[in-house]
Design a protein that fits this description.
This protein has 5 helices and 28 strands. It is mainly beta. It has a single domain, classed as Single-stranded right-handed beta-helix, Pectin lyase-like (Pectate Lyase C-like, 3 Solenoid). The radius of gyration is 22 Å and the shape is globular. The two termini are about 35 Å apart.
């Protein structure tokens, strides 16, 4: 299967004219010093680990972290993983820990499912996402932690997910597949300067977390790999995703907050999500919200996004029975190349955890702004479909120019909103102009993100 090569990445970076691998000083996201010296440090080799790609090192990781836990209240500790291939099953992190992967260090997920324990389902989902009952725990896992850093000198964490993908395709799974990294009920988490490969399921999953930063990471999985989302903030707040390259078999980023009646009851929204300088491609969506959004999603800000060779760029997925809301979403400065559908809202996405959901629990979708978008080789500008009796409202489009091949560029139903400077011209439901009288209906750019309204097209498409 074709993978993204170093040449692909170089061409992308050359095209957009900037380095995605350096956190910029102008970033609005809080910076965390990954080079901060922890007062206590050990190497995984001190606990008998062997980096030959064959020896199972689960006990070595567990013992090293157990040892370092005694230093958690003494300034924290660092677990160093040197060059080598370190095969392991699932292991837990602790608070005040830095997990550091050196250059050419690879943590390999075991291909034996017994090395990935089964844990309880998330309360906001009520069951495993794929099957009733429990779910396999992620390769790297943390719960009720604070001050956790997973970083390095561009080391690699490889989930070796092919065995899980085959089980999914063959319908031989006993439990929901594991994520590659999951942080749960945790705060002050930084994940940076690493490459993540071949996750069994979603790759990076912060759930019920606050103050999470994912910066300067590369996430790769074959385009045919099922449900290998890149980064999925789930019922989490104050999340910053910056300077990432993602190429996977599902959504590059998907913001979630629980599933139907379980998400409604749990009631923890995802809010204050910043996404900046994201580049990637996928057989699914670049930035998605849902479909599990029953706890609500709000205050999402994304800018400087480049999506290419993908099915859709922006997608909101929901359904009757979801409840919850998606509101105050602002996406700006997006460049698209070879994308099938630029903007897609799906109000009848379906798929419910069980038969006890309330079909009258209708989602509220409002104040979604998309502006300053250019696109080349786009098949369809928008497929924006709300719900009969539950219109999506205050959808605002501004300064969007798309080179579209379809004779019917827009297909809209059960939506209301405003548009200006949109080519091809937006659908009738969005044909009201954005005037001063309508400013209050559109979610305006907050001071948190200073975005230029102009676009230097030559920097993005040298041939223009």
């Amino acid at each position: 299967m074709k993978r993204v090569s170093a040449v692909d990445v170089f061409l992308v970076l050359s095209l957009i004219g900037c380095s995605l691998w350096t956190v910029r000083s102008s970033s609005s996201c809080k910076q965390i010093n990954t080079m901060e010296v922890r007062p206590h440090s050990v190497s995984i080799t001190e606990f008998g680990a062997v980096g030959d790609g064959i020896t199972l090192n689960t006990k070595a990781f567990q013992n090293a972290i157990f040892y370092l836990n005694s230093y958690a209240d003494k300034g924290g500790a660092k677990l160093f993983v040197p060059a080598g291939q370190w095969l392991t099953g699932s292991f837990d992190l602790i608070s005040h820990l830095t997990l550091w992967l050196d250059k050419d260090a690879v943590i390999l997920g075991s291909m034996n499912s017994e090395d990935w324990p089964v844990v309880d389902p998330l309360p906001s989902y009520g069951r495993g996402r794929e099957l009733p009952g429990g779910r396999h725990r992620s390769l790297i896992y943390g719960n009720n932690l604070t001050d956790v850093i997973i970083t390095g000198n561009n080391g690699t964490i490889d989930g070796q997910g092919s065995i899980w993908w085959n089980k999914f395709r063959n319908k031989t799974l006993d439990h929901t597949r594991p994520h590659l990294v999951e942080m749960m009920n945790s705060t002050e988490v930084l994940i940076s300067n690493l490459t993540f490969l071949n996750s069994p399921f979603w790759t990076i999953h912060p759930v019920y977390c606050s103050h999470v930063r994912v910066q300067n990471v590369t996430i790769l999985a074959p385009p045919s790999s099922p449900n290998t989302d890149g980064i999925d903030p789930d019922s989490s707040d104050d999340v910053c995703i910056e300077d990432c390259y993602i190429s996977t078999g599902d959504d590059l980023i998907s913001i979630k907050s629980g599933w139907d009646e379980y998400g409604i009851s749990f009631g923890r929204p995802s809010t204050n999500i910043i996404i900046r300088r994201l580049t990637g491609k996928t057989t699914s969506s670049g930035i998605a919200i849902g479909s599990e959004m029953s706890g609500g999603v709000s205050e999402v800000r994304a800018e400087d996004i480049y999506i290419f060779d993908s099915h859709s760029a922006i997608r909101i997925k929901t359904s009757p029975g979801r409840g919850g809301y998606v509101k105050n979403v602002y996406i700006s400065n997006m460049t698209l190349v070879n994308v099938s559908i630029a903007i897609r809202f799906s109000g009848l996405y379906g798929e419910h955890p069980d038969d006890t959901y309330d079909p009258d629990a209708l989602p509220v979708i409002e104040r979604i702004t998309v502006k300053d978008v250019i696109g080349e080789n786009i098949k369809r500008a928008g497929l924006i479909q709300g719900i009969n009796g539950d219109n999506f409202v205050n959808i605002c489009l501004s300064n969007i120019t798309l080179n579209v091949s379809s004779k019917i560029p827009w297909n809209c139903s059960y939506i209301k909103g405003y548009s200006e400077l949109v080519l091809p011209e937006a659908c009738e439901q969005l044909n009201e102009r954005i005037s001063p009288d309508h400013f209050s209906d559109c979610y305006k750019l907050p001071d948190l993100i200073k975005s230029s309204s102009s676009r230097n097209r030559a920097a993005w498409f040298p041939s223009w």
